Amino acid sequence: MQDSQQKIKKFLFKRREDNDAQTPQTETAEENPFIAAEENERYRRMEREFEDYRKRKVLSKIDRLITGEGALDDVREEIRSVASGARAVVVPRLAKAAKRALSDSEKMEVLVDYPFAGGPKKAVLCEIKAAFRLKASVLVCVSVSAFASGNVRALEKTLNVLRRLSRKKTLTPVFSAAGLGAEQIGKLALMIKSKGFGAVAVTYGEPNATADAVKLLCDALGDKIPVRVAGKISTAEEAERLFLAGADRLITADYLALSRSALDGIDLI
Prior knowledge:
This protein is of the alpha/beta class. The protein has helices at about 1-10, 15-20, 35-60, 70-80, 95-100, 120-135, 145-150, 150-165, 180-195, 210-220, 235-245, 255-260; strands spanning about 60-65, 85-90, 105-115, 135-140, 170-175, 200-205, 225-230, 250. It contains twelve helices and eight strands.
């Protein structure tokens, strides 16, 4: 509680405290009950404002996955509902509509599926290049099934292709931790480091794709490569576990359910 009070006063009311210091009071709270009541109300107001700020800070780290199952107007509304600082993550067929719905200062990312191991496929390359033409960042779901079976060279070939595509562009590979053990996650982290990606993402909610797997990857990559987590994240408890595991950002289609959650206890300030 004391730490919370110190954060509130330091962050929100430093200027107010400085002004109070320059204007000495003739009476103290102990001497005048009206002053005590005013100070209590001011502190409660400070707490409410700080709590609102904390929730906004958390929501700015949660990106909304939009698959566009509804009408186009519904998609635009979903895009506009994304919190300030967060990002709209859309599938390729919605990229142009999302670009029109967002302002220049708002961020959009396009999620492209790369479901095979090895060399590039023309359709996937076209989707990635189209997203780059819209000045959007790209998330690419990379298959690790061959890697999980011991075929390391297939995944390395895929990452080499993506690395060449990402020169001077923002491209983030998305890996599934399903079926990967601790040793394989460590090898995957070494491969990611060797390719020089600025960030990676990992799926959550599949078998073995747990907060523990996220923590293993975050620990193996270190602080220089942020890890985003994508999946069915709909409760504050899940979000907190993933942030504590080391996740830098979350991506979820259950954005509304999560944004309505209390998000208590999650402090990213």
